[in-house]
UniProtKB/TrEMBL annotation:
Major enzyme class: oxidoreductase
Organism placement in taxonomy: Bacteria, Pseudomonadati, Pseudomonadota, Alphaproteobacteria, Sphingomonadales
Family, similarity comment: Belongs to the class-II pyridine nucleotide-disulfide oxidoreductase family.
Protein name: Thioredoxin reductase
Cofactor, free-text remark: Binds 1 FAD per subunit.
Keywords tagged on the record: Disulfide bond, FAD, Flavoprotein, NADP, Oxidoreductase, Redox-active center
Origin: domain of life: Bacteria
Domain (FAD/NAD(P)-binding): residue spans on this chain: 8-299
Pfam families, per the entry: Pyr_redox_2 (PF07992)
Example of a GO cellular component annotation carried by this entry: cytoplasm
Amino acid sequence: MTATHSTRMLILGSGPAGLSAAIYGARAGLAPIVVQGIQPGGQLMTTTDVENYPGFREVIQGPWLMQEMQAQAEHVGAQMMWDTIVEIDVSQRPFRLVGDGGTVYTGDTLVIATGAQARWLGLDSEELLKGKGVSACATCDGFFFRGKKVAVIGGGNTAVEEALYLTNHSHDVTLIHRRDSLRAEKILQQRLFANERITMAWNKEVVRFIGGGQPEGLVAIELKDTVTGELSMLEVDGGFVAIGHHPATELFRGHIALDDDGYIQVEKGTTNTSVPGVFACGDVMDKHYRQAITAAGTGCMAALDAERFLAAADFETVAQAAE
């Protein structure tokens, strides 16, 4: 017999956004169920040093932070489910979702916090040196490269913005792009070319990231000229892959309004989606900031928006019954 779990607040995703929503929802007495997805804890589970999350004077570990957030959510009454949703129906309330094992989840409200994944180059050396000099977030990790040589890989807005940001920490930033022109907005390009700390490496693609030292970390990037095929070596301490992000929204396509980049559209200043009673928070709706603290903040917003939605719906039901 198929198991069914019902709740006033159903949350998809268990990163900072989803767990923050769970904490606030549980404290409001909504007994939220969190379906954790294929990566419980979100991207912070693959992050080592975290130095920019408020409340900790010393560097903390990403997995530890997520374990503590989950423990807090469970302590106040949230229920965690190890499952991955493969089917949704948000055409009517309660919303109905189905896990990959057939388990059915229904929720009077739905909070989507499925996040977004950074796009990587797909190199074996990249995987080996992630967190050891290779990163996909300059605002997260740039502080660790103060006074060191760094490189950014990409040619769009994200790459240019990250290169500009890194000049706050490094006097030597190289932007590596496989073509001879950038896709970024003209105003960003103007700022980039005017910055003396940034050097362009045109028509270059990354062949491999090279590690060394004790403990092992990134020491150089091997490049291939896309025109001549010539190989070269760029000595750097940090490499930032900035070729975009992919929001985890395929499940919602055709059910909830998405923007041109696939992110869930929300009403400005809220977490309200195109479907009343469905809310989105964290990186699945935020293409600009992508920080743990901003994800947690929007998770709080989603829970409050859901609570207010339910209060209004309950009032309307009582009023109709009294007529």
